[in-house]
């Protein structure tokens, strides 16, 4: 007898993504493995997102205030009826067999707690070279890391419901890097796989300054990810490239001492450009030499935003008790006279 296929609940957190929500939902309802239920958790959107969700046979949970993606995912998980929870960001459209492939892998490997996917190298909507940069980079580093990993990304990821209930909810104190914090708990008991057969197209930031602001904001919580990276977690960028980008701006200060010392920042830039030959070769094959030059320049500037954000994150980590994961908050001091 053929084995029973477990039921799947698709959970879609959403905040002001009317541009992509319809494509996201259409892709879910076109899956070869039909979901038991589809839950859209709208995190107090001010656009037409809720109207779009109502066009589909899905459950709409309308949050009265914006609480962030972690809280939205937790609300969806609490309402889900499926044996497997498939978390999907509302700016991503799945390939038709994504759910089926995730289910197959969870069934085939009893020790596997979570399967998450790889983004397509082509964006959901091609809005220009910045978005093409993002799509190529996001695809490459995920594809390079595919296999058994120590980090899960829930932009498109499946987890057994009983595993989610055992590990606990997403940390609602985190609006970024919540995946990394969750992975730290998950990998202690279950294995994680990133699969090239679970795929989707993503609509990302399409302008340079918003992209840099987003990277700066997200990088402030990189300190929460350092432990996972050391333990073999996924990293989008090569450490040598990050170091070279970090050293280039301060090395410019050597210029007044001697013009020859300007070779130092130039060397840093050269080291950065050569730090990830696999990525450069991939971009060259995909888009040609002209785009590779553009890609490398944008990649360098993005690294500067990453370094500045990480530095700011360290300062906040040391000075703000409420910053970062809930588990590191300081225990309140008891009131005087209490035992």
What sort of overall outline do the alpha carbons produce when their principal axes are compared? globular
* CATH first level of the domain at 8-207: Alpha Beta
| Element-level helix/strand string | EHEHEHEEHEHEEHHEHHHHHH
**N-end to C-end Cα span:** 64 Å
Helix/strand class: alpha/beta
Looking at CATH, the homologous superfamily of the domain at 8-207 is Spore Coat Polysaccharide Biosynthesis Protein SpsA, Chain A
Largest sheet: 9 strands, mixed
Rg, alpha carbons: 21 Å
Just name the CATH architecture of the domain at 8-207: Alpha-Beta Complex
Helix content: 40-55%
Low-confidence stretches: 330-339
Number of helices: 13
- For this structure, the CATH topology of the domain at 8-207 is Spore Coat Polysaccharide Biosynthesis Protein SpsA, Chain A
What does the average pLDDT come to? Answer: 91
- Tell me how many strands there are: 9
Q: How much strand content do the residues show?
A: 15-25%
Can you walk me through this structure?
It is an enzyme of class 2 (transferase). Its EC number is 2.4.1.-. β2 (37-42), α2 and β3 (59-62) form a beta-alpha-beta unit. The longest helix is centred in the C-terminal third of the chain and has 31 residues, at 289-319. The chain has a domain at 8-207: Spore Coat Polysaccharide Biosynthesis Protein SpsA, Chain A. α8 (208-219) runs parallel beside α13 (289-319) and α10 packs across α13 (289-319). The chain is an alpha/beta fold and 339 residues long. Strands 1, 2, 3, 4, 5, 6, 7, 8 and 9 form a 9-stranded mixed beta sheet that branches. The chain is globular. The model is unreliable at 330-339 (pLDDT under 50). The chain contains 13 helices and 9 strands. It has helices at residues 18-29, 49-53, 69-79, 98-108, 129-145, 161-167, 178-186, 208-219, 226-230, 239-251, 263-274, 277-287, 289-319; strands at 8-14, 37-42, 59-62, 84-88, 92-94, 112-119, 147-149, 156-160, 191-202.
């Amino acid at each position: 007898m053929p084995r029973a296929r477990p039921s799947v609940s698709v959970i879609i957190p959403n905040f002001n993504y009317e541009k992509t929500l319809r494509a996201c939902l259409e892709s879910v309802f076109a899956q070869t493995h039909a979901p038991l239920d589809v839950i859209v958790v709208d995190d107090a959107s001010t656009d037409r997102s809720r109207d779009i969700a109502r066009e589909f046979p899905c459950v709409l949970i309308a949050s009265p205030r914006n609480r962030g993606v972690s809280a939205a995912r937790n609300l969806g998980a609490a309402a889900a009826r499926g044996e497997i929870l498939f978390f999907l960001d509302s700016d991503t459209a799945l390939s038709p067999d994504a759910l089926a492939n995730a289910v197959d892998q969870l069934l085939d490997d009893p020790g596997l707690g979570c399967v998450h996917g790889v983004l397509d190298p082509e964006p959901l909507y091609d809005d220009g070279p910045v978005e093409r940069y993002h799509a190529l980079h996001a695809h490459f580093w995920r594809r390079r890391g595919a296999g058994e990993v120590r980090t899960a990304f829930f932009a498109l990821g499946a987890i057994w419901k009983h595993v989610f209930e055992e590990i606990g909810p997403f940390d609602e104190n985190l609006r970024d890097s919540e995946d990394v914090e969750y992975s730290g708990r998950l990998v202690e008991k279950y294995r994680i796989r990133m699969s090239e057969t679970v795929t989707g197209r993503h609509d990302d930031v399409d302008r340079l300054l918003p992209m840099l602001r987003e990277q700066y904001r997200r990088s402030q919580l990189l300190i929460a990810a350092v432990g996972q990276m050391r333990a073999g977690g996924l990293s989008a960028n090569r450490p040598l490239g990050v170091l070279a980008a970090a050293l280039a701006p301060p090395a410019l200060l050597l210029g007044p001492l001697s013009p020859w010392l300007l070779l130092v920042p130039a060397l840093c830039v050269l080291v950065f450009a050569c730090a990830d030959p696999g990525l450069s070769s991939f971009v060259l094959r995909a888009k040609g030499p002209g785009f590779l030059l553009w890609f490398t320049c944008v990649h360098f500037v993005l690294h500067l935003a990453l370094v500045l954000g990480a530095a700011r994150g360290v300062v906040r980590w040391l000075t703000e008790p409420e910053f970062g994961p809930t588990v590191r908050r300081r225990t309140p001091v008891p009131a005087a006279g209490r035992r």
